[in-house]
Structure formats: structure tokens, C-alpha cells
Design a protein that fits this description.
Shape: globular
Number of helices: 20
Number of domains: 4
Structural class: alpha+beta
Strand order of the largest sheet: 1-8-9-10-11-16-15-14-13
Length: 790
């Protein structure tokens, strides 16, 4: 069948989210956020601002990524062999005494992120709140209200490319507003903690036209804030420019900040708007579930706020550290899930550049991690610890996970994902392989041959199982067995890609051939040797082979499929009582890999109901008591929301194992959907439409060339495949035209390929995005409402 080329001309023009489309998902505060956790987030990858308060005053909690106290206690007495001896001899008391050195949070001198000042805008009276709207398209907040019955407006944004917060106050009475920046909001416990660390009170200056806030830490680190307020010419408003700089930005950050705020060019927001406009062009999706769609775009907005090339990676709270207190868990980098989950969406969402801070920051830690490995294990490899600072500084929490070799290995998986999705051989050679090789070497040196002739892990840990107790130390945790297999597989595949001789690959071949199989009880994966999933548990480390590693798949053997299904049945039996919020998006991803679209959707629906604040911040517990978790606290961390964005895309597009799957696990209730320029392994960009439960088309753009393998998205129908020369489509002169389950298309670099069902050619309308009509309650779903939406 030859389809007329004219049927497709112009029909596939980019439909990336327009400002009009995004506006339906702007977060709207019908009432002010009276609590910090419900505030309005703004950031640029280095400085952040969270706007909240009832308007008397308007409060803005400030933040900066490099605001750290990185002093640490370097432990030199710990030894893997000594710990192993105590565990094997069952000397619980001696082992716990030995490990007590690792639990030193209480003395207040572990590395930690620092609380920043709060900016307060005082109008001299209550700002009567009308509406606050966070525009996703322009990353700016507009608050409409009244002062003494007169209409006023406050606009605030953090410049996309400069460390400047700009606030415009318009309307009669706003010219009288005063600005205050300080630490007055810090609680007594926080002040004492800072004092015990040797922090002086910051020096503050303030005049009618501006001021400064300057902290010189005992480490020599300097943090400076300068602000300038200028009455507008009409006299009915003012403009506030505020800059946050540190020793990381300038040798003299205070003088530099004062110079920055004197620059009026920041009043022009065109560069800021251009940055965000380019950001939103990278990809697009629309689904029938308005609430999940709104969550997706809110999370992608926060991702753009919190990770930028050249800056630091996303911490637990990103750029919105807890107001008035020291941050929970030191606001650090947790490598046993949190960092990894935060970066899961960047690959499919076609925003690979957002991973640059991750790779640059942690590759710089390799020399330190090699030293720590020699110190603790006594052999070559890397040992990172779990809770760390920006240069790998140790922050000691749960004993077992701090000693777990999987921390760096799991991080290495992200390096591998970047290669798979970019096909960048230079990145593989220069960045990914050094991390993957050393992570594998750690495990290879740790393995021992057992009586069965197989290689075993003699002593390790499954993250957060047993809450770090002595009893949690174990033999052969399945998470380690999965990570070893991933690392070995990556080394073997890298040899084929780079055609280079690497002696460690021979060792990887031996390990892969002799490693003990995954530990199981019938058709259920165990936590570790002799340790079943005996109760509900939040961390699915024993299922890592399913997700994120993609080693056990539904495309595998019947035995593998049975193991996946049996393990998930066991999860359902144990329930969610001991889960925290971030477990639900992760389980959604696992369910998608298992082909369970309804479960994947349900996990996200539950997450949206119980585990987020009105501003979409993830709360670890279930504080409103939906009865889904025994935890009812609400410390905020960001990783779960980013995991939810990844899970939404996983229902629309998958490519693990090099096979592209279009709309693989949409739930039964989703009949229509559309996505554009989502990225897959192999460096392919895919656009596709689902209409009335049938796929209309799939377009593939090949960035690097090579074979594209795609599971037939049209069911049993045959495919017609077309290539584009940039102006029109032409039928490929040779197959693949097939009704088989998987077809392979030999692609050329930079060329587009169109797949349509044989005999059911879509018209021009069917080649365009799906459009959903949203009722008023579905629009602007998030933000604090007068009558709560959820």
C-alpha cells in the first residue's frame, strides 16, 4: 500500500506545550499558604524562594544549593572484616557497640545544609488575598489582592540565568511596603545548633532603599544577600531586586551581590521567559486524567527549577529547605534511593542535560570513594556511603546502608542510562565506565565462592530493611545480586560498543557465569538469604531487577514472568501499611514493567490523594490519615514527585532492553492519549497518538542512526513504514512491513520514520495531538483552594 505523501505534510508539526496549554495546569492559590509546606516554589537551579504567609507579612523563604557546613568526622577505625566477624559470631551487643560510632547525628556536627534567611515584605497592613497564580510557562508568581480596598498586584520570579529574585509591587499603598531580611524566624533549637557549630550572627544593614545580609561561616564560607528597592515613577508601586551569592560565585560575594542588584537590566524578563520557553519545548504529553497530567507538569516545572548544568544536583528538599529549622536528614544526598528517584524522569522526558550536575558532582568524588573502599573493605573499588554532602562528605545514619556497596553501584546505573538514551560514546568512555568499573570491582572483590561453587556476597544489607539494626545484616541480598548483574552486563556491552580491550571485562564474564541466582521462595523474590518479605516494607530493593535495572522482564522466560508476578502478588498481600509516600510512584513503575496498567495508575492515584501537599510537595507520611500508611508525619522530600512524573511516562512509553513499547500499560480507563518527543534507549525520539483504544501512528526520529526495534503498537495489524526526507514521506522500499510482535527498522542518523497500521491510514486530524476538554474543577487542580480538591 502506498499512502499519499500529501496526507502527512505539516500534520506532524511540533505541538510542544504552549503557554495556553500550560495555563490550565498553573498552580492557583485561592487562599494564602499559611504554612511553609503549602508555599509557592520558585528557583533557578542555584537559588530558591518559597512564597507563603497570610500577607501580614508576605514571607519568602530563601535557599541556595551551596549553603552547606561540610565539616565532618572522618572515621578511621571501622573495618568490614571486624564487622563480619562479630556478625558471624552472633555477638550482637559487641557489634552494636562497634557500630555506635556510625550513629552520630545527635552531636549536631555532621555535615548539613544551612537554613537561609527569610525575606519578608510588610505592607503595614494585611494584604487581602484575592488569588495567587504560579505560571508554569513563565515560572513566575502573580498575587492579586487589595490594600485598604484598593486593588494591588505582586509579581515575583527568580531569574532563570542569574541569582536574582525580582518582585514588582503595583497599586496604591504598595510603595510603602518595607523589606526585611534576617534569621529572626529561626527556632531556638536551630539557633543553638548553629551556635554550637561556631556560627556568628550575620551582619545586617538596612536603609529605605536597600540592605545587605552577610554571613562568614567558621569554615571561611561566605554567604551574602543584597537587595535594592526602588519606587516606580508613578509612585504607586515599587520594584525589589535581591541577589544571593556565595564564595562559590565570587571571591567577595557581598560586594558582588551589591553590584548585581544595582543593575536595572534584570527588570527585563525576556531572557528568563526565553529560557523557560525553550525548556518546555523538549517534550509534550497529554492524558485523560487531568489530575495526573497537572501533577506531571508541576513536577517537570520543579525539575527545571532544581537541576541545571553547572550547578549542584538535587538534594532531598531541592531549593526549598525547611523554614526556620535545620533541614530533615541534613538536607543531604541519599544514594539508597532518593537521588536516583529524583533523576528517573530526565531520560524519557528528553531532558538529558539535567543530569549533568549528577555526573560531574559524583565523578569528582571517585578519588575519595576509592580511599574509603581501601580503608573499610581493604581492597580496590569505591565505597561512597549513603548520606553524603556535595563533595562526598559522610553523614552517618542507618549503619547498614552507610556500609552498603550498592550506593555507588545504583548511582552508576544513571551513568549507564545516560549512555543508553544518548548513545554518546565519549560519555560512555570518559564518564560512565570509570564509575561502572569501580562499582563492579567493589563487588568482584567482595564475592566469595561458596560450597555450591557459586559466588556469594558474604555480608551486606538490603536498604532500610530492619531499620539499620544488627539483624538487618545479611548474606546475598537480591539487590546486590541484581546490581552485580547490571554492572557486569554494562561492562560486556561497553566492550562491544567501544571495541576496546579491558581486563576487567574478563573478570565480569567470570562473575556473570558463576554468580549465585536470585534468591527466591517458590515464585517470590526474597530480601536476602533466608529472609522473606515478612511484612509490609517501603523499600523495594529486592525488586530492583525488575525496576529500575530491567533485568527481569515480561519478555523473558516463563519462569521470569512467574517470578515477577508472584513477587508482586506477595507485595499486595503484605499491603502498604509500612510504606512512605515515595514508595507509591516506585511501585507504579514496577507495575508498569510487569504490564499492570491498572495497578500503575492506582499507585499514582493513591499518591496524589494522600502523600502530597496542595503545592504538590511530597510528604513522606500520611498526615491526613487516609489509612494508607502507619506513618502520619509530613517531612518534605522531592524525589517522590519526580518518580511520579517518570511513572506517568512509563505508562506511555518504555524501551528497556532496547525494545520500544508505545502505550504499553495505559490503564483501562484511558482511551485516548498523546505524547511528543519522548526519548527512548537508542537515542530515538518518539511521537504517538492513542485514540479510542487504538494507536493511530508512531513517529520515530533517529538521532544517531542504528536499528530501532519496536513492539508492534497496532496489535495484530501489519505495519506500513515510511521515511522522511524532511519535506514528505515515502514508503520504505524494503521491509519492515510486518505483523510480527517486534520489528526492526534500520535507521539513518537524523531521519524520521512513520509507522501506521496497514489499511487504516490516519487522516490529518488523527496525526495531531489529542485534545481534552477540562471542566472547571479539573483546571488548575493544584495550589491551595478555598474548598480542597483532595
Amino acid at each position: 500500500m502506498i499512502l499519499p505523501a500529501i496526507a502527512f505534510v505539516g500534520a506532524l508539526a511540533a505541538a510542544a506545550p504552549t503557554p495556553e496549554f500550560l495555563s490550565q495546569h498553573d498552580l492557583v492559590w485561592e487562599v494564602p499558604a499559611e504554612r511553609w509546606i503549602e508555599g509557592i516554589p520558585l528557583a533557578n537551579g542555584d537559588i530558591g524562594a518559597l512564597v507563603w504567609g497570610d500577607g501580614a507579612p508576605l514571607k519568602i523563604t530563601l535557599d541556595k544549593y551551596d549553603a552547606w557546613d561540610t565539616r565532618e568526622k572522618r572515621l578511621t577505625t571501622e573495618s568490614y572484616q571486624e564487622l563480619r566477624r562479630l556478625v558471624e559470631e552472633g555477638k550482637k551487643k559487641e557489634a552494636e557497640d562497634y557500630l555506635a560510632i556510625w550513629r552520630i547525628y545527635a552531636d549536631g556536627h555532621d555535615p548539613t545544609r544551612l537554613p537561609l534567611p527569610r525575606l519578608e515584605i510588610d505592607f503595614g497592613q494585611l494584604l487581602e488575598w484575592g488569588q495567587g497564580r504560579l505560571s508554569l510557562a513563565s515560572a513566575s508568581l502573580v498575587v492579586d489582592g487589595t490594600l485598604s480596598g484598593e486593588p494591588v498586584q505582586v509579581e515575583i520570579f527568580v531569574c532563570a540565568e542569574e541569582n536574582v529574585l525580582l518582585a514588582r509591587l503595583r497599586g496604591r499603598g504598595t510603595e510603602k511596603a518595607r523589606v526585611r531580611v534576617g534569621w529572626d524566624h529561626l527556632g531556638e533549637g536551630t539557633l543553638k545548633a548553629l551556635e554550637s557549630r561556631g556560627y556568628p550572627r550575620p551582619k545586617v544593614t538596612s536603609t529605605d532603599t536597600g540592605g545587605t545580609w552577610h554571613l562568614v561561616a567558621p569554615t571561611g564560607y561566605e554567604l551574602a544577600i543584597a537587595w535594592n528597592r526602588e519606587i516606580e515613577s508613578e509612585g504607586n508601586g515599587q520594584v525589589l531586586r535581591l541577589s544571593i551569592l556565595s564564595s562559590a560565585d565570587s571571591e567577595h560575594p557581598l560586594e558582588a551581590a551589591k553590584q548585581v542588584v544595582s543593575d536595572k537590566s534584570f527588570l527585563d524578563d525576556s531572557r528568563h521567559r526565553k529560557w523557560w520557553a525553550e525548556y518546555w519545548k523538549r517534550s509534550f504529553l497529554t492524558i485523560p486524567d487531568a489530575r495526573l497530567e497537572a501533577l506531571y507538569y508541576a513536577e517537570m516545572y520543579k525539575l527545571g527549577c532544581c537541576s541545571r548544568p553547572g550547578k549542584l544536583p538535587i538534594t532531598l528538599q531541592g531549593l526549598w529547605t525547611l523554614d526556620g529549622q535545620m533541614p530533615p536528614w541534613s538536607g543531604d544526598y541519599h544514594l539508597d534511593m532518593n537521588v536516583e528517584q529524583s533523576y528517573w524522569p530526565i531520560y524519557t522526558a528528553n531532558r538529558l542535560e539535567l543530569g549533568e550536575p549528577l555526573y560531574r558532582t559524583f565523578s569528582a568524588c571517585i578519588p575519595r570513594w576509592r580511599e574509603q573502599c581501601r580503608q573499610f573493605f581493604g581492597f580496590e573499588g569505591i565505597c561512597s556511603g549513603c548520606a553524603i554532602g556535595p563533595h562526598g562528605e559522610r553523614i552517618f545514619g542507618y549503619t547498614g546502608v552507610e556500609l552498603w556497596p550498592g550506593n555507588a553501584a545504583w548511582l552508576a546505573h544513571h551513568y549507564w542510562l545516560h549512555y543508553l538514551y544518548s548513545q554518546d560514546d565519549d560519555f560512555l568512555r570518559e564518564e560512565a565506565l570509570p564509575m561502572i568499573r569501580l562499582a563492579f570491582l567493589t563487588y568482584a572483590n567482595l564475592l566469595e565462592t561458596g560450597e555450591d561453587g557459586k559466588l556469594h556476597i558474604p555480608l551486606s544489607y538490603s536498604p532500610e530493611w530492619g531499620e539499620g539494626s544488627f539483624d538487618a545484616f545479611c548474606r546475598d541480598p537480591n539487590c546486590d545480586l541484581a546490581l552485580i548483574r547490571f554492572l557486569g552486563k554494562a561492562l560486556l556491552e561497553s566492550r562491544e560498543v567501544l571495541d576496546a580491550t579491558d581486563p576487567i571485562v574478563n573478570r565480569a564474564e567470570d562473575v556473570m557465569a558463576n554468580l549465585t541466582p536470585y534468591l527466591r521462595d517458590g515464585n517470590r523474590l526474597l530480601i536476602s538469604a533466608n529472609t522473606p518479605l515478612s511484612h509490609s516494607h517501603r523499600h523495594f530493593s529486592h525488586l530492583m531487577a525488575i525496576h529500575p535495572l530491567g533485568l527481569l522482564t515480561m519478555d523473558g522466560t516463563e519462569e521470569e514472568r512467574d517470578l515477577i508476578q508472584g513477587s508482586l502478588r506477595q507485595i499486595r498481600v503484605k499491603g502498604t501499611g509500612e510504606w512512605t509516600g515515595w514508595a507509591f510512584p516506585w511501585m507504579s513503575l514496577i507495575a508498569s514493567r510487569a504490564g499492570l496498567g491498572n495497578t500503575a495508575w492506582q499507585m499514582l492515584d493513591v499518591y496524589c490523594n494522600a502523600f502530597i501537599s496542595p503545592n504538590t510537595f511530597h510528604m513522606n507520611g500520611d498526615p491526613r490519615i487516609f489509612g494508607l500508611s502507619q506513618f502520619d508525619y509530613e517531612p518534605m522530600t522531592l524525589e517522590a514527585g519526580f518518580g511520579a512524573a517518570a511513572a506517568i511516562m512509563e505508562m506511555l512509553l518504555q524501551s528497556q532492553g532496547g525494545r520500544i513499547r508505545v502505550f504499553p500499560t495505559v490503564p483501562d480507563r484511558w482511551h485516548d492519549a498523546y505524547f511528543e518527543n519522548l526519548r527512548t534507549e537508542g537515542a530515538f525520539l518518539v511521537t504517538a497518538r492513542l485514540e479510542a483504544d487504538r494507536v493511530s501512528f508512531a513517529k520515530i526520529h533517529s538521532e544517531k542512526g542504528g536499528t530501532c526495534s519496536i513492539v508492534n503498537p497496532f496489535g495484530e495489524e501489519a505495519l506500513a513504514v515510511f521515511g522522511s526526507d524532511g519535506e514528505s514521506w515515502e514508503s520504505l522500499s524494503q521491509p519492515p512491513i510486518s505483523a510480527e510482535k517486534v520489528i526492526s527498522i534500520p535507521t539513518e542518523k537524523g531521519r524520521d520514520y512513520l509507522l501506521v497500521p496497514e489499511g487504516r491510514a490516519p487522516g490529518e486530524v488523527q496525526m495531531k495531538p489529542v485534545s481534552f476538554t477540562r471542566n472547571p474543577r479539573e483546571r488548575n487542580f493544584y495550589g491551595k483552594k478555598l474548598h480542597p480538591n483532595f
